[in-house]
Structures are given as structure tokens and as C-alpha cells.
Amino acid sequence: MNKNNPFTPPPSTTLPIIQRLIVIYKLWHEILPNFPKKSKYTLGNKIDALFVELLELVFIAGYMPREYKSSYVQKAIGKTDLIKFFLQICWEIKSLQNNKYIALSEPLNEVGKMLGGWYRQLSKQNSAKSGEMK
What we know:
Layout: H1 16-31, H2 37-63, H3 66-92, H4 98-133
């Protein structure tokens, strides 16, 4: 690895979590144009921006060296929780129908579990590595 470039070469295949996020984002992208006008440019745009940030964080985490991944994964977990929170608000104010809320929430919960597992794995690896250094 080049010391001036902290990124590792891209993996030969796309991470499963990124594939799942792309599917969820495509669904969101179909829902957003039909959002009620009163919420479209506030909550709708906020959720859209969070999705893009989440995709970016997970993508970057996939390419970072192991010791730098956990901070990106932790930020991605926060973005996922924010998306779920804002989707719930949209559902509660009736800007998002039940079936669309469920269609987005269930796979987002899976992504949250995947991110949590990834973070725990990285934490264990980082703990083991720091233990070796002592």
C-alpha cells in the first residue's frame, strides 16, 4: 500500500451491504417523486441526502485499511438510524404509506444489523491487534 494513498485497491466484487443499500435507495428513489409536497422538500430531501451519505460512508469503509474502517462504519450506523427515524416521522405524519414504510424499514433494519456485525468484528480485530502490540 502506498503511504500517500490510504485507500486499498477496490475489492473484486461489490460488498453485499452496498448491494443491499443500492436496492433500498432505488426503492426510495421511486417513492420520493410521489411524496406529498409539504414533506417532499423537507423530510424527503433530508432522507435522500442521508441515503447518499450512508452509501458514501459504506463505500469508503470498504476500501479503507482495517484500522480506519471502524470510524466509517460507526458513522454509517448513525446515518442508518437517522434514516429510520425520519422515515418513522414521515409515516406518522402520513407522508409515507404503511406498505412503503415497511418496504423501506425492513431492509434498513437488516442493513443496521449488518453494520453492527461489521463494527463488532472490526472492534474485536482492533482489540486483538492492540493486545499484540503490548
